[in-house]
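A sample copied in:

***
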Amino acid sequence: MHQSIINSTIKPFSATAFHNGDFHPVTEQDLLGKWSVVFFYPADFTFVCPTELGDMADHYEKLQSMGVEVYSVSTDTHFTHKAWHSSSDTIGKIKYPMIGDPTGTITRNFGVMIEEDGLALRGTFVINPEGEIKVAEVHDLGIGRSAAELVRKIQAAQYVATHDGEVCPAAWQPGEETLAPSIDLVGKI
């Protein structure tokens, strides 16, 4: 039986990211103390991937205003990330760190490695400031993700983290009513 990654603590890793025109070391320690998104995709210079990374770039300012850092990860090298960033208008607008994972350590840590191809599935993980995974979503390679829906999920995760005893119902948006589970609600929803 497969154990859920939800509420598990991120595993140690050490990698290099292309970020703000330079290469920077990144470890699991960099994800602590703030909300983080680790956003896996199969490969640079492909087809669905740039649409997803561009969509994330379009939502990055909103995520930053929510105290969230985004880390995109593929099994490409940080050198390949730099080349892609320099050659594509869509990727060129990315301001978040692009982590290279050529050994597949991070990709395996999150359970999204396609071993026979050496590529990552489309995995999105939301991590709280304590390093615990609160949202895990994995897509097949042909199914692109929506950063707008990710923003909503993070808003719900942040709300639940700061409002003990409350939960967010389906399609909840900030400012809408939440639920306080109790025996009185059983069968009433």
